[in-house]
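Below is how a single chain appears once it has passed through the pipeline. First comes the sequence as given, then the structure the pipeline wrote out for it. We keep one example in the README because the format questions we get most often are answered faster by looking than by reading.
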Amino acid sequence: MGYFSRVNKSILNKANKPSSNLFYFSKPGLVNPNYSFKTNKENKIIGKAENALNGKIFAFSHTYMDYAEANGRINWHLNPVLKVEAPRNVPWNKLPDFGPYGDIKLIWEASRFPQVFFFINAFSLTKDEKYARGCLQQIEHWIDNNPFPYGVNYKCGQEISFRLFAWILALDYFYDYLSPELTRKIVKNIYISLLRVAANIDFAAKSVKNNHSISEAAGLLIGGVLFPQFPESQKFIKKGIKYLQKELSYQVYDDGAYIQHSFNYQRLALDVLSFVIIIAKKNKLQLPEIIYTAHKKMIAFLSAFVQPNGFLPNYGQNDGSYLFPLAASHYRDFRESINLASAVHEPYTYFFKDYATLIQFFNLKAKAGRQLSENQKFDTGGYYILKNKYSFSFIRCHSYKHRPAQSDMLHLDVWKDGVNVFCDSGTFSYNVDKNFKRQFFGTRGHNTVMLNQSNQMEEILHFGWANWIKSKLIYFDGKAFEGEHYGYKKEEHAIHRRKVQLENNKIFITDTITGDKNSLIKIEQIWNSPLNFKMVSSNKFENEHVRIHANINGKKEEAYLSEYYNDYYTGTRIIFSVEAQLPFIIKTSIEIL
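Resulting structure:
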């Protein structure tokens, strides 16, 4: 019998010991009993709950996915796109991440239980008991159709933790609709789930090294605090705190940037820590200082990138994760999460006046009035902001010490009044044809220079890159940037240096490619945009927002862009290209109109 099989057996032995007083739930008072969802989109909000009652889940904060069986109940093992079911009777540890059932994240989405938040909102608006009962019935149905240790829904400790967070909030909010029998069934599964996470968190900490380990540590800590009757509750708390301390010590950089080089994953980690701090405060548990400090650093970092519409650049990997999908605001709007995070710290103030749904839901006493960060330079993370009244841009210049996400060094993101005129192409999917995946993860999906149609780093396996890029900042003063990277030094014997100068409504970019090859090299300066452009001349393109012009000829082609997981649309890719010997200089101007 292998390790995981022994662990699974041990968990079942512990959970099935006769006990009349272990599986109960004491209302923790995490949520506001008078929570009232305020929206001018009432029909849309109620529609999410109505659809969820019928097995259609608003997935990845973007689209409905139909998990319903013929009887209208959810098939928790179904890939709703391929209509293929993952095995129900195979232990989780014997099922592959990349199996015949397609993208496992599509199966997991319903089992994360985003529908809990749709049911809560619908109930707060209508007081109709069908949403309370429907929510609890889906939790019970999940437990009946996911006996431990079978199926893909026990495969990932982070997914388990997110499910428990949603269930805990459902138990608290719909407490009056719980029966003793249902409470016992749900709490027993929570106990099993915590034992499963505790037994395997080392994998997340030693092999994954990202928000997975933070989420799992948070799950153990929260589970231990809220279920003190479990024999292992103190061990859960101790282990959760231990791993949070360890993981935050290196995952959150000293300037607030995050190890995963992704704004969306950083928001996820921020929300997880906000939830941990809320529960700790309500239970008078003092956490190690590093948890509060890392949380505050992330608030300061993320708030520096907020656009007028609340969006942040779609930079880095984005798998659609959103821990608390309660608010009516757009999924890419970070204001609710940043406000919630700010409101848990003294002096209990937040940034954005009209974005306090989560603050109200968790019954926090805080007031608006905090000012956004004006910092433009994040040297450890390698992010540099150039902004004035006409535009906002940031450029990435970083030497990787932790696993890179995408091949995108010296990418320049450009915004005008909340419009992302030149953007990161996004993520789309982790389980897709490699050639198509390169349109998003590769250098071509970013606003930088590509040499000989090759990525800046070499791809390995599903998520990896070899020859991690090294870069150097040469100059930055808030209005001008200069830096270079060495990603092409090994294969192309070339160095890419980029200068960016902000002057009123114009951005001037100078790309200098140097190297010791005598042969011709194909040089492409790439610009991805969600907007349509017209070709004014062979080297000039424009639309109502922006005009771009270079000293070499260009073309426009279709670009694939993704704002949401498992979804993409077509935009415009402008490529200024030349075949030349090195050194070669491309001079480009972007004029904000």
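DSSP finds 15 helices and 27 strands in the chain.

See the next section for the split statistics.
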